[in-house]
Amino acid sequence: MIELYHSQRAMRNMRRAALQRGVVAILDVGSSKISCLVLRFDGGAALEADGIGSLAGQVGFRVIGAATTRSRGVRFGEIHAMQETERAIRTALQAAQKMANIRVDHVIASFSGAEPRSYGLAGSVDVEGHVVTEQDVSRVLSSCDVPDFGEGREVLHAQPVNFALDHRSGLSDPRGQMGQALSTDMHMLTVDAAAIQNLAHCVKRCDLELAGIASSAYVSGIASLVEDEQELGAACIDFGGGSTSLSVFMKRHMIYADAVRMGGEHVTSDISMGLSVPTTTAERIKTFYGGVYATGMDDREMIEIGGDTGDWEHDRRTVSRAELIGIMRPRVEEILEEVRARLDAAGFEHLPSQQIVLTGGGSQIPGLDGLASKILGHQVRLGRPLRVNGLPQAATGPGFASAVGLCLFAANPQDEWWDFEIPVERYPARSLKRAMKWFKDNW
User: Fold this and answer.
1) Is this prediction's pTM over 0.90?
2) Model confidence over 123-138: pLDDT tens digits?
3) Which entry of 56, 193, 308, 429 is 20 to 30 Å from 212 by CA?
4) Count of other CB atoms within 10 angstroms of residue 252
């Protein structure tokens, strides 16, 4: 645990160094594609800013290189064939560097899957009427009871989401204020340690330094939820290729994250098996003709399956669009039902606003938003990532939500536990608190 804390601190320092050099690469390692963006930052002056929320320094940036390649060796958002993934990362990185006309040494990466688990932690300390200092913030963070999250797990994010001074809750930065008792609520996300280690190892093999790592559930939420949604409470569902991640935001902080080990590729493989066609053909049919709602017209609309097996009869087959929808809909429903179960477990219905935003490449299936609002029982909208400077038109779709979110994470990360000097002897004790219980009590 202490070792992890130090490795995260080291990455934070490396990120600062990269920003001072003025260039960093963003790498979104997904199951269907690997995206790489090269960012240029404008000057290091903003890095000196201090204050919670901007401790790590807010800076302006623009995208000067972008490339995408088909993912290889990644399943359910996790690396399972190191050499293939390494080749795919190198391909994307070289193309992005060529476009940017600059060599990049530091990379900030995101990944999905890895069985994320959320915990809500609480801690409090006495400040005895003094002015709250940075040391007090460190003390209160280290007073949180950390659950025994088990062997083989690592903390990916640990963010203070709320501070309270005496009876005043909802403070984003308590420093400089006076009071008797300072308390905090922290959201902690743990993932399967092997997934992080494999990604870090893969990045190292590509001769790059890892300057940060984030959960794609988190970064998709930053990119796709508008300010009001992040403030009042909303869920972001990132419908990826190999997994579907979800994150819940409140008061501009992520307070819950989870992932379902199913995504758009599972819909494609259902089509492939249902129609006895290769995966590439199934993907094409899904993209051009797919949907989840059939009308009377769809019985009459015939789709040519095509093929080059040499068997004339086999290659001239057609299928009605209604049949295609009949294959796709059950799998999409299954994924949405799983998402609903996770949102229910998170206590999503306790939020003041229950907006749901769908993003990710898989969210482009026609009619998905209607089906999602029926199954999830809330307002659902389709989300495209925020526009960022210099982003090519081809990279502005929902499939790039986590890549764009990662740019925002690189330029303006939220405070994490490791941004503070936690005294080692105060390193957190271990006891379990149910995630999000504190959330109902505090807001």
Assistant:
1) no
2) 888 888 788 888 888 8
3) 429
4) 16
